[in-house]
Write a structure and sequence with these properties.
single chain; alpha/beta; Rossmann fold; 10 strands; binds S-adenosylmethionine
């Protein structure tokens, strides 16, 4: 069992008292002596096929979008992020490893062990020296306040039933002027004959939640099917 080492490079944002167990390079939190596990997300069953499903099915058929253009746009958007402390919500199979600089200190959270295992492989192959993967729910981030420079959440916000609560968690863990980057399918852009599961919101509803939680909301001028891209900058002063 790993005891957290506050101040060590890959655990510096952990709250005091959080106990971890490392299982094959993935950190589980431990409560009352038991590993905390979550109800499996649909993608866990499909984790070996996740990337191919996204490319061949979800992107063209559900989002009406192009995966290569999505990745090129994000790569460009993240270009200036170097040597920063980056948190990702809903790491999935670790595609961010191909999109941000390996100079960053990366922390990824997800509820799916199958996908995080794949993510670990990608971050290692991309030679990230500082990265940590955590099985945890976005509603209960085991991190201290004001610790991350950047938070990223791609194609995942629509799975959160309480986006307001998640926005508050993002605000809590981001530093003052820290930036939240997201891509998410939105009602306004989805074709009427397509059903996207989860809690899909409109651009206005998304903007309202982030603005009311004291972020500067900045839509990005890029069209790619049903996907909406935005930045939200934390107004918090520390
Ligand atoms: C569509 S995938 C997106 C993965 C990745 N960000 C990408 O762009 O390919 C959604 C991810 O969100 C994770 N997820 C869903 N609900 C979650 C929650 N409450 N807390 C943490 N992760 C969650 C799923 O396990 C899955 O890996």
């Amino acid at each position: 069992m790993i005891e957290p080492e506050p101040g060590s490079s890959d655990k510096k944002c952990l709250k005091d008292g959080v106990v971890l167990k490392d299982v094959g390079g993935i950190n589980y939190t431990v409560k009352d002596g038991k590993i905390v596990k979550y109800k499996k997300w649909l993608g866990d069953l499909f984790s070996p096929m996740y990337d191919s499903l996204m490319e061949k099915n979800v992107f063209p058929k559900k989002f009406g979008a192009d995966l290569n253009e999505h990745e090129d746009f994000l790569k460009n958007l993240y270009k200036g992020i170097e040597n920063e402390n980056v948190l990702e919500l809903g790491t999935g199979s670790g595609n961010l490893a191909n999109l941000i600089s390996r100079t960053n200190h990366y922390t990824g959270v997800d509820i799916s062990p199958g996908l995080l295992k794949r993510a670990g492989k990608k971050f290692s192959e991309n030679k990230f020296e500082k990265f940590g993967l955590y099985i945890c729910n976005v509603y209960e981030l085991p991190f201290i306040n004001d610790c991350f420079d950047v938070c990223v959440c791609n194609l995942t916000l629509n799975f959160f039933s309480d986006l307001e609560k998640v926005a508050k968690e993002i605000k809590r863990v981001l530093k003052s002027s820290g930036v939240f980057y997201s891509s998410v399918p939105v009602k306004d852009k989805i074709s009427s004959d397509i059903i996207i599961h989860g809690y899909v919101k409109s651009i206005k509803e998304t903007e309202k939640i982030f603005s009311e939680n004291d972020f500067y909301f900045e839509p990005q001028q890029f069209e790619n099917g049903a996907i909406f891209y935005f930045k939200a900058v934390n107004k918090k002063q520390t």
